[in-house]
Amino acid sequence: xxxxxxxxxxxxxxxxxxxxxxxxxxxxxxxxxxxxxxxxxxxxxxxxxxxxxxxxxxxxxxxxxxxxxxxxxxxxxxxxxxxxxxxxxxxxxxxxxxxxxxxxxxxxxxxxxxxxxxxxxxxxxxxxxxxxxxxxxxxxxxxxxxxxxxxxxxxxxxxxxxxxxxxxxxxxxxxxxxxxxxxxxxxxxxxxxxxxxxxxxxxxxxxxxxxxxxxxxxxxxxxxxxxxxxxxxxxxxxxxxxxxxxxxxxxxxxxxxxxxxxxxxxxxx
Length: 269
Description:
Layout: E1 8-10, E2 15-16, E3 30-31, E4 37-39, H1 55-66, H2 74-84, E5 86-87, E6 90-95, E7 102-104, E8 115-119, E9 141-145, H3 146-152, E10 156-157, E11 171-172, E12 176-178, H4 184-197, E13 208-209, E14 220-221, H5 224-233, H6 238-251, H7 257-260, H8 264-268
Parallel strand pairs: 10-12, 13-14
Antiparallel strand pairs: 1-4, 2-3, 5-6, 6-7, 8-9, 11-12
Helix pairs in contact: 4-5
């Protein structure tokens, strides 16, 4: 039986700037509260060499920890997604990432009305394609409506834009994509997982986040400042944690550390 992640949060109080409020002066602004520190069942085993570290030391340690993984073929991803992204309210369906639609598992394909395999880290950002490796890594592959997938294309992530058919609350403009509120943190943690897992020390490019929305085909993905805010605003939920545990136990044997420890985003970036 796979070990289930046990999450304990040590909540930090919101910090206030302490000063007297004088007549004619604005009250001091609140400082954003970082993600709460957590402990999990994996800290003494899987993450033991990362605990207590920060910055580049933490990033390097996590890279070493999560790099060993079983690599799937691109065709095997179809069947895996039917398990990892099963709709908790309908076992015959998968839940689509950006649109939030529940759609039959049998409707996977490339036609209108089908769902296909969305690379959250756009595969053109580093040109890694669909070969076993980043192109088939379940930690950033999700089911999505074919047309919505096309609308997202290879755009960087940012706030703002307009709605579209089957958007589910997601927005887009000429150079960026904003996922619906319920999965903004999921998207952030998937992008940052990729930046830690793929560091250019194997046959794949060094993937890194930056604060741009014009990355095109370079191995960079943005917008980092927005992704960090999304990680704070939308912490991991039961769906994301269940998905993580299935990938770890049944498919790849590695974990996304930012689902287990969202506070590590701020500790690194």
